[in-house]
Amino acid sequence: MSTIDANLQAVQQIIGAAAREAGRAPRSVALLAVSKTFGFEAVLEAVRAGQRAFGENYLQEALDKIAAVAAAVPETPLEWHFIGPIQSNKTRPIAQHFDWVHAVEREKIAQRLSEQRPAGMAPLNICLQVNISGEASKSGVTPAELPELARRVAALPNLKLRGLMAIPEPEANFEAQRAPFARLRQLYEQLRADGLELDTLSMGMSADLRAAIVEGATIVRVGSAIFGARHYS
């Protein structure tokens, strides 16, 4: 068994235990393997171990990797999620090559993604990023601005608004970790009550996985616990 295979199994065990603690089915939480900065060989190892959804932050690196992996395993359907900040001049290749975008915080970006999604492709799945901890340095729409943005994005063609995403301020204490996830879940439930058909809460990473799942995460984003320490060039 490869190290990546063993790591994936260990992470899935953590997810399963946290889900059962919350009275949820383990399969209700999807694992997004964050493969940014790792080469396509690492992704191939994860694919061979059964992983199918991968998250990328850096566009050109991601495009090269998507092409290389597709050439290596052309018969294996994979999901590619863009999880980094989005500049206006990068929307076209994101719309063309990704299945999900997790960090939409402006209507302008959503409009460009909608306009640039190629005809014949399935709608691009969208999560709105919420600045749930109110950090000045953190991206995301404010909770007060969220309902209007959600309504506008949900109305765009070629997109499917799936839910919300957040990266809260780091906390070591479990209860402190739960609090912002609980706030995000409340915002999500309010949007659903207002008639939006949402099904996704993208929240939780290696350090706060358990708290996020207890509070309702449906996608958790895990990188180093699967692939090892990152090496930035």
Element layout with pairings:
Elements lengths: L2 H19 L8 E5 L5 H9 L4 E4 L2 H14 L6 E4 L8 H7 L2 E5 L2 H10 L7 E6 L16 H9 L4 E8 L7 H20 L6 E4 L5 H6 L4 E4 L1 H4 L6
Parallel strand pairs: 1-2, 1-8, 2-3, 3-4, 4-5, 5-6, 6-7
Helix pairs in contact: 2-3, 4-5
Radius of gyration: 17 Å
N-end to C-end Cα span: 29 Å
User: What is the count of DSSP helices, taking H or I runs of 4+ residues?
Assistant: 9
- Strand percentage: 15-25%
**pLDDT < 50 runs, ≥5 residues:** none
**Largest pleated sheet:** 8 strands, parallel
The string of secondary-structure elements, in order, is HEHEHEHEHEHEHEHEH
Helix fraction?
Answer: 40-55%
Query: Which structural category do the helix and sheet elements fall into?
Result: alpha/beta
Strands of the widest sheet, in order across it, are 7-6-5-4-3-2-1-8
Write up what this structure looks like:
With 233 residues, this protein is of the alpha/beta class. Helices cover 42% and strands 17% of the residues. It is built from 9 helices and 8 strands. The protein has helices spanning 3-21, 40-48, 59-72, 91-97, 107-116, 146-154, 174-193, 209-214, 224-227; strands at 30-34, 53-56, 79-82, 100-104, 124-129, 159-166, 200-203, 219-222. Helix 5 links the parallel strand 4 (100-104) and strand 5. It is globular and about 45 Å long. The model has no long low-confidence stretch (mean pLDDT 95).
Question: In summary, what is this structure?
Answer:
The protein is α/β, with parallel strands linked by helices and 233 residues long.
